[in-house]
Protein backbone atom coordinates (compact mmCIF):
# COMPACT_ATOMS: atom_id res chain seq x y z
CA UNK A 1 0.00 0.00 0.00
CA UNK A 2 1.23 3.47 -0.91
CA UNK A 3 -0.16 6.77 0.41
CA UNK A 4 1.07 10.30 -0.13
CA UNK A 5 0.28 13.92 0.68
CA UNK A 6 2.80 16.69 0.18
CA UNK A 7 1.11 20.00 1.02
CA UNK A 8 1.34 21.94 4.28
CA UNK A 9 -2.29 22.72 5.10
CA UNK A 10 -3.80 25.56 7.16
CA UNK A 11 -7.58 25.86 7.61
CA UNK A 12 -9.31 28.59 9.56
CA UNK A 13 -11.80 31.45 9.45
CA UNK A 14 -9.96 34.71 8.58
CA UNK A 15 -6.72 32.77 8.01
CA UNK A 16 -6.22 34.41 4.58
CA UNK A 17 -5.62 37.73 6.33
CA UNK A 18 -2.37 36.15 7.59
CA UNK A 19 -1.29 35.14 4.09
CA UNK A 20 1.79 37.37 4.20
CA UNK A 21 3.15 35.45 7.21
CA UNK A 22 2.49 32.09 5.57
CA UNK A 23 4.29 33.18 2.40
CA UNK A 24 7.19 34.62 4.40
CA UNK A 25 7.68 31.26 6.15
CA UNK A 26 8.72 29.85 2.77
CA UNK A 27 11.49 32.42 2.45
CA UNK A 28 9.77 34.20 -0.44
CA UNK A 29 11.16 37.61 -1.42
CA UNK A 30 9.04 38.51 -4.46
CA UNK A 31 5.76 36.63 -4.98
CA UNK A 32 3.82 36.48 -8.20
CA UNK A 33 0.13 36.73 -7.30
CA UNK A 34 -2.60 35.29 -9.54
CA UNK A 35 -6.13 36.01 -8.42
CA UNK A 36 -9.51 35.10 -9.86
CA UNK A 37 -11.56 37.94 -11.32
CA UNK A 38 -14.61 36.37 -9.65
CA UNK A 39 -13.32 37.37 -6.20
CA UNK A 40 -12.15 40.85 -7.19
CA UNK A 41 -15.35 42.52 -6.01
CA UNK A 42 -15.27 40.93 -2.55
CA UNK A 43 -14.37 43.40 0.20
CA UNK A 44 -12.85 40.58 2.22
CA UNK A 45 -10.64 39.55 -0.68
CA UNK A 46 -9.56 43.16 -1.14
CA UNK A 47 -8.40 43.17 2.48
CA UNK A 48 -6.56 39.89 1.91
CA UNK A 49 -4.81 41.25 -1.19
CA UNK A 50 -3.98 44.54 0.53
CA UNK A 51 -2.39 42.73 3.48
CA UNK A 52 -0.32 40.57 1.14
CA UNK A 53 0.87 43.35 -1.18
CA UNK A 54 1.59 45.67 1.76
CA UNK A 55 4.01 43.08 3.04
CA UNK A 56 5.43 42.54 -0.45
CA UNK A 57 5.50 45.88 -2.23
CA UNK A 58 7.52 44.33 -5.07
CA UNK A 59 4.94 41.60 -5.79
CA UNK A 60 3.82 40.97 -9.37
CA UNK A 61 0.02 40.81 -9.62
CA UNK A 62 -2.11 39.22 -12.35
CA UNK A 63 -5.93 39.07 -12.49
CA UNK A 64 -7.17 35.91 -14.20
CA UNK A 65 -10.16 36.97 -16.30
CA UNK A 66 -10.24 33.82 -18.42
CA UNK A 67 -13.72 32.29 -18.43
CA UNK A 68 -13.93 28.58 -17.72
CA UNK A 69 -11.11 26.08 -17.40
CA UNK A 70 -7.78 27.33 -18.78
CA UNK A 71 -6.29 26.28 -22.09
CA UNK A 72 -2.63 25.61 -22.75
CA UNK A 73 -2.58 28.79 -24.85
CA UNK A 74 -3.84 30.86 -21.93
CA UNK A 75 -1.26 29.27 -19.65
CA UNK A 76 1.45 30.22 -22.13
CA UNK A 77 0.29 33.85 -22.15
CA UNK A 78 0.22 34.13 -18.37
CA UNK A 79 3.66 32.54 -18.06
CA UNK A 80 5.02 35.13 -20.50
CA UNK A 81 3.52 37.89 -18.33
CA UNK A 82 5.49 36.67 -15.32
CA UNK A 83 8.67 35.98 -17.28
CA UNK A 84 8.88 39.72 -18.01
CA UNK A 85 9.19 40.41 -14.26
CA UNK A 86 10.12 37.08 -12.66
CA UNK A 87 8.92 36.28 -9.13
CA UNK A 88 10.47 33.68 -6.83
CA UNK A 89 7.15 32.06 -5.87
CA UNK A 90 3.53 31.96 -7.01
CA UNK A 91 0.46 32.67 -4.84
CA UNK A 92 -2.80 31.59 -6.52
CA UNK A 93 -6.10 32.82 -5.07
CA UNK A 94 -9.42 31.70 -6.55
CA UNK A 95 -11.37 28.73 -7.87
CA UNK A 96 -9.89 25.46 -9.08
CA UNK A 97 -9.09 26.80 -12.54
CA UNK A 98 -7.05 29.69 -11.16
CA UNK A 99 -5.22 27.37 -8.76
CA UNK A 100 -4.42 25.04 -11.67
CA UNK A 101 -3.18 28.05 -13.62
CA UNK A 102 -0.87 28.82 -10.73
CA UNK A 103 0.55 25.28 -10.88
CA UNK A 104 1.17 25.59 -14.60
CA UNK A 105 2.85 29.00 -14.28
CA UNK A 106 5.04 27.83 -11.39
CA UNK A 107 6.27 24.94 -13.54
CA UNK A 108 6.78 26.98 -16.73
CA UNK A 109 8.80 29.61 -14.85
CA UNK A 110 11.54 27.01 -14.31
CA UNK A 111 11.01 25.09 -17.57
CA UNK A 112 11.27 27.34 -20.61
CA UNK A 113 9.34 25.06 -22.95
CA UNK A 114 5.95 25.27 -24.72
CA UNK A 115 3.07 24.56 -22.35
CA UNK A 116 1.73 21.85 -24.67
CA UNK A 117 4.98 19.92 -24.36
CA UNK A 118 4.14 19.33 -20.69
CA UNK A 119 0.68 17.90 -21.29
CA UNK A 120 -0.19 14.60 -19.69
CA UNK A 121 2.38 13.24 -17.25
CA UNK A 122 5.67 15.02 -17.99
CA UNK A 123 8.94 13.58 -16.74
CA UNK A 124 12.41 15.04 -16.38
CA UNK A 125 11.15 18.53 -15.56
CA UNK A 126 12.80 21.03 -13.23
CA UNK A 127 11.24 21.74 -9.86
CA UNK A 128 8.66 24.56 -10.13
CA UNK A 129 8.64 27.77 -8.15
CA UNK A 130 7.15 27.34 -4.66
CA UNK A 131 3.35 27.59 -4.88
CA UNK A 132 0.84 28.74 -2.26
CA UNK A 133 -2.82 28.01 -3.02
CA UNK A 134 -5.76 29.90 -1.50
CA UNK A 135 -9.13 28.53 -2.69
CA UNK A 136 -12.20 30.75 -3.01
CA UNK A 137 -14.45 27.75 -3.69
CA UNK A 138 -14.47 24.54 -1.69
CA UNK A 139 -14.74 21.29 -3.60
CA UNK A 140 -12.30 20.88 -6.47
CA UNK A 141 -9.46 20.07 -4.07
CA UNK A 142 -7.02 21.80 -6.43
CA UNK A 143 -5.44 23.44 -3.40
CA UNK A 144 -3.81 20.16 -2.30
CA UNK A 145 -3.51 18.14 -5.52
CA UNK A 146 -0.71 17.81 -8.05
CA UNK A 147 -3.10 17.60 -11.00
CA UNK A 148 -3.65 20.73 -13.08
CA UNK A 149 -6.40 20.69 -15.71
CA UNK A 150 -5.83 22.41 -19.07
CA UNK A 151 -7.77 22.08 -22.29
CA UNK A 152 -6.14 21.27 -25.60
CA UNK A 153 -8.33 23.31 -27.93
CA UNK A 154 -7.10 21.53 -31.05
CA UNK A 155 -8.14 18.12 -29.71
CA UNK A 156 -11.10 19.36 -27.66
CA UNK A 157 -9.88 17.39 -24.65
CA UNK A 158 -8.90 18.03 -21.06
CA UNK A 159 -5.38 16.70 -20.64
CA UNK A 160 -3.68 18.77 -17.97
CA UNK A 161 -0.18 18.84 -16.58
CA UNK A 162 0.07 16.10 -13.99
CA UNK A 163 3.42 15.99 -12.24
CA UNK A 164 3.90 15.28 -8.55
CA UNK A 165 6.25 18.25 -8.60
CA UNK A 166 3.09 20.38 -8.91
CA UNK A 167 2.16 19.87 -5.26
CA UNK A 168 1.66 23.28 -3.59
CA UNK A 169 4.09 24.00 -0.77
CA UNK A 170 1.25 25.39 1.32
CA UNK A 171 -2.54 25.69 1.10
CA UNK A 172 -4.29 28.37 3.13
CA UNK A 173 -8.01 27.60 3.31
CA UNK A 174 -10.30 30.33 4.61
CA UNK A 175 -14.08 29.80 4.25
CA UNK A 176 -14.58 33.56 4.40
CA UNK A 177 -13.22 33.83 0.85
CA UNK A 178 -16.07 31.66 -0.42
CA UNK A 179 -18.86 33.65 1.24
CA UNK A 180 -19.51 35.97 -1.70
CA UNK A 181 -19.45 33.22 -4.35
CA UNK A 182 -22.79 32.53 -6.09
CA UNK A 183 -24.62 29.74 -4.30
CA UNK A 184 -24.80 27.77 -7.58
CA UNK A 185 -20.99 27.72 -7.71
CA UNK A 186 -20.75 26.72 -4.05
CA UNK A 187 -23.12 23.79 -4.62
CA UNK A 188 -21.42 22.68 -7.85
CA UNK A 189 -18.04 22.72 -6.12
CA UNK A 190 -19.38 20.74 -3.15
CA UNK A 191 -20.87 18.18 -5.53
CA UNK A 192 -17.39 17.85 -7.04
CA UNK A 193 -16.24 16.76 -3.56
CA UNK A 194 -18.95 14.10 -3.43
CA UNK A 195 -17.85 12.76 -6.82
CA UNK A 196 -14.24 12.55 -5.63
CA UNK A 197 -15.30 10.76 -2.44
CA UNK A 198 -17.62 8.26 -4.13
CA UNK A 199 -15.34 7.52 -7.10
CA UNK A 200 -12.32 7.00 -4.84
CA UNK A 201 -14.34 4.91 -2.37
CA UNK A 202 -15.49 2.51 -5.07
CA UNK A 203 -12.26 2.52 -7.08
CA UNK A 204 -10.70 -0.89 -7.59
CA UNK A 205 -7.42 0.77 -6.56
CA UNK A 206 -8.65 2.04 -3.20
CA UNK A 207 -6.71 1.28 -0.02
CA UNK A 208 -7.70 1.10 3.64
CA UNK A 209 -6.16 4.55 4.18
CA UNK A 210 -7.71 6.19 1.14
CA UNK A 211 -11.14 4.95 2.22
CA UNK A 212 -10.81 6.73 5.56
CA UNK A 213 -10.57 10.01 3.64
CA UNK A 214 -13.34 9.02 1.20
CA UNK A 215 -15.79 8.36 4.03
CA UNK A 216 -14.89 11.43 6.08
CA UNK A 217 -15.04 13.69 3.04
CA UNK A 218 -18.39 12.31 1.90
CA UNK A 219 -20.02 12.60 5.30
CA UNK A 220 -18.90 16.19 5.94
CA UNK A 221 -19.91 17.38 2.48
CA UNK A 222 -23.17 15.44 2.28
CA UNK A 223 -24.44 16.60 5.66
CA UNK A 224 -23.38 20.21 5.06
CA UNK A 225 -25.47 20.18 1.87
CA UNK A 226 -28.40 18.40 3.55
CA UNK A 227 -28.57 20.97 6.35
CA UNK A 228 -28.99 23.72 3.75
CA UNK A 229 -27.15 26.29 5.88
CA UNK A 230 -24.28 27.12 3.58
CA UNK A 231 -24.34 30.75 4.68
CA UNK A 232 -22.74 29.65 7.98
CA UNK A 233 -18.96 29.56 8.36
CA UNK A 234 -19.25 26.20 10.15
CA UNK A 235 -20.85 24.63 7.10
CA UNK A 236 -18.18 26.11 4.85
CA UNK A 237 -15.50 24.60 7.10
CA UNK A 238 -17.13 21.20 6.61
CA UNK A 239 -17.04 21.77 2.84
CA UNK A 240 -13.37 22.75 3.10
CA UNK A 241 -12.43 19.60 5.01
CA UNK A 242 -14.60 17.48 2.71
CA UNK A 243 -12.84 18.94 -0.33
CA UNK A 244 -9.39 18.15 1.04
CA UNK A 245 -10.40 14.63 2.12
CA UNK A 246 -12.01 13.81 -1.22
CA UNK A 247 -9.00 14.92 -3.21
CA UNK A 248 -6.52 13.13 -0.97
CA UNK A 249 -8.57 9.95 -1.39
CA UNK A 250 -8.77 10.38 -5.17
CA UNK A 251 -5.02 10.92 -5.52
CA UNK A 252 -4.38 7.74 -3.56
CA UNK A 253 -6.87 5.50 -5.36
CA UNK A 254 -8.25 6.52 -8.74
CA UNK A 255 -11.41 7.82 -10.34
CA UNK A 256 -14.40 6.12 -11.89
CA UNK A 257 -17.16 6.61 -14.46
CA UNK A 258 -18.68 9.69 -12.82
CA UNK A 259 -15.52 11.73 -13.12
CA UNK A 260 -15.07 10.45 -16.68
CA UNK A 261 -18.59 11.46 -17.70
CA UNK A 262 -18.03 14.88 -16.12
CA UNK A 263 -14.90 15.51 -18.16
CA UNK A 264 -16.66 14.60 -21.39
CA UNK A 265 -19.79 16.69 -20.76
CA UNK A 266 -17.74 19.60 -19.39
CA UNK A 267 -15.59 19.93 -22.50
CA UNK A 268 -18.44 19.36 -24.95
CA UNK A 269 -20.91 21.81 -23.38
CA UNK A 270 -18.73 23.97 -21.11
CA UNK A 271 -20.57 22.70 -18.04
CA UNK A 272 -18.77 23.46 -14.74
CA UNK A 273 -16.94 20.31 -13.74
CA UNK A 274 -18.66 19.93 -10.37
CA UNK A 275 -22.14 20.25 -11.86
CA UNK A 276 -21.26 17.88 -14.69
CA UNK A 277 -20.20 15.26 -12.17
CA UNK A 278 -23.31 15.80 -10.07
CA UNK A 279 -25.51 15.04 -13.07
CA UNK A 280 -24.09 11.51 -13.31
CA UNK A 281 -23.15 10.65 -9.72
CA UNK A 282 -26.45 9.33 -8.41
CA UNK A 283 -27.19 7.23 -11.49
CA UNK A 284 -23.71 5.66 -11.53
CA UNK A 285 -24.16 4.78 -7.85
CA UNK A 286 -27.61 3.34 -8.61
CA UNK A 287 -26.21 1.29 -11.52
CA UNK A 288 -23.54 -0.19 -9.26
CA UNK A 289 -26.10 -0.93 -6.53
CA UNK A 290 -28.41 -2.72 -8.99
CA UNK A 291 -25.45 -4.81 -10.14
CA UNK A 292 -24.56 -6.02 -6.67
CA UNK A 293 -22.31 -3.35 -5.17
CA UNK A 294 -23.49 -2.82 -1.59
CA UNK A 295 -20.54 -1.13 0.10
CA UNK A 296 -21.89 2.41 -0.37
CA UNK A 297 -23.67 1.68 2.91
CA UNK A 298 -20.35 2.43 4.63
CA UNK A 299 -20.60 6.05 3.50
CA UNK A 300 -23.66 6.55 5.70
CA UNK A 301 -23.04 5.77 9.41
CA UNK A 302 -26.57 6.98 10.34
CA UNK A 303 -28.22 4.21 8.32
CA UNK A 304 -31.15 2.53 10.04
CA UNK A 305 -31.23 -0.57 7.84
CA UNK A 306 -29.15 -3.50 9.13
CA UNK A 307 -28.26 -5.06 5.77
CA UNK A 308 -25.73 -3.41 3.41
CA UNK A 309 -28.14 -3.75 0.47
CA UNK A 310 -30.97 -1.97 2.29
CA UNK A 311 -28.59 0.65 3.75
CA UNK A 312 -27.27 1.44 0.28
CA UNK A 313 -30.84 1.80 -1.00
CA UNK A 314 -31.52 4.12 1.94
CA UNK A 315 -28.52 6.28 1.04
CA UNK A 316 -29.65 6.48 -2.58
CA UNK A 317 -33.07 7.66 -1.42
CA UNK A 318 -31.35 10.40 0.60
CA UNK A 319 -29.41 11.28 -2.53
CA UNK A 320 -32.72 11.62 -4.39
CA UNK A 321 -33.97 14.06 -1.77
CA UNK A 322 -30.74 16.05 -1.92
CA UNK A 323 -30.87 16.24 -5.71
CA UNK A 324 -34.42 17.59 -5.53
CA UNK A 325 -33.40 20.10 -2.86
CA UNK A 326 -30.43 21.34 -4.91
CA UNK A 327 -32.26 21.15 -8.25
CA UNK A 328 -29.51 19.09 -9.91
CA UNK A 329 -30.45 18.82 -13.62
CA UNK A 330 -30.53 15.82 -15.94
CA UNK A 331 -28.98 15.74 -19.43
CA UNK A 332 -32.17 17.06 -21.04
CA UNK A 333 -31.27 20.78 -20.73
CA UNK A 334 -28.09 20.05 -22.70
CA UNK A 335 -29.97 18.71 -25.72
CA UNK A 336 -29.98 15.00 -24.95
CA UNK A 337 -32.99 12.68 -25.16
CA UNK A 338 -33.68 9.03 -25.88
CA UNK A 339 -32.85 9.65 -29.55
CA UNK A 340 -29.20 10.60 -29.03
CA UNK A 341 -28.47 9.06 -25.60
CA UNK A 342 -26.72 6.06 -27.20
CA UNK A 343 -24.48 8.35 -29.22
CA UNK A 344 -23.46 10.25 -26.07
CA UNK A 345 -22.74 6.97 -24.26
CA UNK A 346 -20.65 5.68 -27.18
CA UNK A 347 -18.56 8.84 -27.46
CA UNK A 348 -18.01 9.06 -23.70
CA UNK A 349 -17.01 5.39 -23.59
CA UNK A 350 -14.47 5.80 -26.38
CA UNK A 351 -12.90 8.82 -24.70
CA UNK A 352 -12.93 7.59 -21.12
CA UNK A 353 -12.18 3.88 -20.95
CA UNK A 354 -9.56 4.56 -18.27
CA UNK A 355 -12.10 6.08 -15.90
CA UNK A 356 -14.63 3.33 -16.60
CA UNK A 357 -12.08 0.66 -15.72
CA UNK A 358 -11.84 1.92 -12.13
CA UNK A 359 -15.48 1.12 -11.35
CA UNK A 360 -16.11 -1.56 -8.69
CA UNK A 361 -18.36 -3.53 -11.07
CA UNK A 362 -17.72 -4.02 -14.78
CA UNK A 363 -18.63 -0.82 -16.63
CA UNK A 364 -18.90 -0.99 -20.41
CA UNK A 365 -20.46 1.08 -23.18
CA UNK A 366 -23.70 -0.77 -22.48
CA UNK A 367 -23.41 0.35 -18.84
CA UNK A 368 -22.83 3.92 -19.96
CA UNK A 369 -25.90 3.70 -22.15
CA UNK A 370 -28.01 2.48 -19.20
CA UNK A 371 -26.86 5.42 -17.06
CA UNK A 372 -27.35 8.00 -19.79
CA UNK A 373 -30.84 6.71 -20.61
CA UNK A 374 -31.86 7.31 -16.99
CA UNK A 375 -30.81 10.96 -17.40
CA UNK A 376 -32.76 11.68 -20.60
Task: Tell me the number of helical segments per DSSP (H or I, 4 or more residues long).
Answer: 13
- The fourth-level CATH homologous superfamily of the largest domain is Dehydroquinate synthase-like - alpha domain
Percent range for helical residues?
Answer: 40-55%
- What's the gyration radius in Å? 20 Å
Alpha carbon gap, first and last residue: 40 Å
How many strand segments? 8
Number of structural domains: 2
Runs in which pLDDT lies below 50 for 5 or more consecutive residues are: none
Question: What is the class of the largest domain in the CATH system?
Answer: Mainly Alpha
Would you identify the CATH architecture of the largest domain?
Up-down Bundle
- If you consult CATH, what is the topology of the largest domain? Dehydroquinate synthase-like, alpha domain
Q: Beta fraction of the residues?
A: 5-15%
Q: The biggest beta sheet, please?
A: 6 strands, parallel
Amino acid sequence: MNFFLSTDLVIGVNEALNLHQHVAQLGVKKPGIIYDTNVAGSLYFQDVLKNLTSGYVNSVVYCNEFGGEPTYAHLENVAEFFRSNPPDAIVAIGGGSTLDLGKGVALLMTNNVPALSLKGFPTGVNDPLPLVTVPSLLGSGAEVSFNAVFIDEAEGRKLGINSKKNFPKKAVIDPQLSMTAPIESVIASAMDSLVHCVDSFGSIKHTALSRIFSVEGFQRTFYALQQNQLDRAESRLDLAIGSVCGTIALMNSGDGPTNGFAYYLGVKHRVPHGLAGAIFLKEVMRYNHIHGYEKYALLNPMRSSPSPKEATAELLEEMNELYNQLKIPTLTPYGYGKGNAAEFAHNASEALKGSFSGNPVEFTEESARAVVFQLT
